[in-house]
Backbone:
């Protein structure tokens, strides 16, 4: 059985890593590189601990966890920096368990280093969790350049000084680069270095580029002039309210007086929004191949089958068209959908692949009451594709029938898992119980619910309650294994 899982998520401007231990601890790691005149080049190591994943002890005023952290930086085989410390979480009051953060800075010469990290929950008996990651320290000294892009969860002006303060602002790092529909702001901090080498002032260009179209997104391109300083902080708060769903790259470039690009830095992020591009089916001329692939009595079925892979705004359009029961309009919408959505394959080929998947999930997961694409397993299959591994337990002494699906890769996310269970024991009616995929149902008491008959729920405020071992209960082991 593995002692830890190390899952890489690649981000522009740094690597973000998820570390998860087989019993409790889960943490997120990122790094950014900066420069200070009296220090030189340095790296910021940013940690976010999933609050629910640690064990807490009672202290005056609430609950508190404690983690042992060890960091080692190696240049080939030589240790160039090391650190070890005990980190206490903030006191969690009223049993409200939240994530907490840590940030450490280390002066390092430019180059590529192997960083080894060890994390241990000091309130449990579990062994330390370890992982390795290569990091690059960029050289900012003596030439016009830009730091990595620091995006924050919270950015507020402050007169105090602490580990999260810089240039008069307190900045809690944002390690995830996924922005849901609820996210409206993207607070950005960068530093410009040595602009005096290029003249009395220097230009800064800001763009957001769609990774799908490779075009600049209208409304986000901005030019500004900056005074001569050895280190010039720049703070921007981008309004992404009107940014539609998609994958994007935010980029800043230093521009000389002669319009030469002197340096650049970028940040990849993913946006999910209700403000999606509208699919216009009115002007569509029906392709005979599309017409032939769908019989009149199945148009509504295949129209509705698009819902699992559609954005919220698209779902509203689909439901509206379905209510009209207009066969021709539905045919046009299906064709328009694949014309807009198909990337690698031609629209018709992409549609036929999806149609085959719809038929497969109907056969595997449909029942007398619901279509296959309406079931949770069918929806997940259509949305993310077939899992790389399925663990099925139709009978267990203490647990409802369940399945654990594991995906090696979903977009930018690695090693994502889904737990489905059948509490009714009939009709192939498996429901999604828990997933660690962003945007999916996350139920950190899923083990207790899976074995509800034999694991009474004593204290709903205790994140460690309801997960006691019981005969035949090996779902946690199966969930963690890879």
Residues:
């Amino acid at each position: 059985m593995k002692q830890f899982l190390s899952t890489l998520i690649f981000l522009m401007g740094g690597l973000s890593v998820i570390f998860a231990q087989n019993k409790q601890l889960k943490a997120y790691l990122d790094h950014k590189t900066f420069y200070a005149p009296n220090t030189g080049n340095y790296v910021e190591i940013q940690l976010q601990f999933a609050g629910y994943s640690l064990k807490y002890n009672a202290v005056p005023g609430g609950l508190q966890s404690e983690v042992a952290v060890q960091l080692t930086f190696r240049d080939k085989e030589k240790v160039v920096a090391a650190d070890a410390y005990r980190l206490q979480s903030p006191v969690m009051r009223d049993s409200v368990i939240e994530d907490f953060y840590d940030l450490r800075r280390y002066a390092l010469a430019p180059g590529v280093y192997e960083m080894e990290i060890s994390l241990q929950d000091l309130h449990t008996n579990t062994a330390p969790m370890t992982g390795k990651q290569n990091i690059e320290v960029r050289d900012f000294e003596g030439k016009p350049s830009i730091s990595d892009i620091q995006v924050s969860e919270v950015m507020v002006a402050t007169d105090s000084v602490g580990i999260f303060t810089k240039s008069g602002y307190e900045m809690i790092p944002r390690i995830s680069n996924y922005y849901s529909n609820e996210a409206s702001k993207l607070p950005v901090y960068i530093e410009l270095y040595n602009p005096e080498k290029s003249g009395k002032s220097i230009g800064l260009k800001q763009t957001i580029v769609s990774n799908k179209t490779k075009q600049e997104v209208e409304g986000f391109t901005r030019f500004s002039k900056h005074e001569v300083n050895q280190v010039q902080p720049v703070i921007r708060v981008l309004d992404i309210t009107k940014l539609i769903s998609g994958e994007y790259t935010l980029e800043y470039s230093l521009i000389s007086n002669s319009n030469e690009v002197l340096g650049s830095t970028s940040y990849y992020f993913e946006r999910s929004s209700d403000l999606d591009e509208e699919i216009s089916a009115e002007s569509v001329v029906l392709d005979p191949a599309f017409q032939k692939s769908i019989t009149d009595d199945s148009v509504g079925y295949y129209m509705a089958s698009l819902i699992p892979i559609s954005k919220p705004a698209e779902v509203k359009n689909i439901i509206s068209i379905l209510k009209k029961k207009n066969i021709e309009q539905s045919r046009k919408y299906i064709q328009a959908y694949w014309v807009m959505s198909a990337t690698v394959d031609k629209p018709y080929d992409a549609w036929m692949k999806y149609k085959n998947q719809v038929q497969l999930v109907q056969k595997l997961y449909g029942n007398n009451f619901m279509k296959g694409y309406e079931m949770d397993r069918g929806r997940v299959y259509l949305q993310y594709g077939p899992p790389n591994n399925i663990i099925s337990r139709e009978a267990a002494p203490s647990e409802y029938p369940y399945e654990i699906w594991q995906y090696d890769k979903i977009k930018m996310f690695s090693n994502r898992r889904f737990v489905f269970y059948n509490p009714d024991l009939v009709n192939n009616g498996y429901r999604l119980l828990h997933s660690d995929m962003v945007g999916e149902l996350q139920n950190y008491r899923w083990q207790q619910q899976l074995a509800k008959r034999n694991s009474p729920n004593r204290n709903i405020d205790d994140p460690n309650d309801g997960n006691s071992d019981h005969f035949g209960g090996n779902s946690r082991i199966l969930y963690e294994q890879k």
About this structure: The two ends are 9 Å apart (CA to CA). The helical segments are 288-293, 299-304, 312-324, 327-341, 347-365, 376-384, 446-450, 475-480.
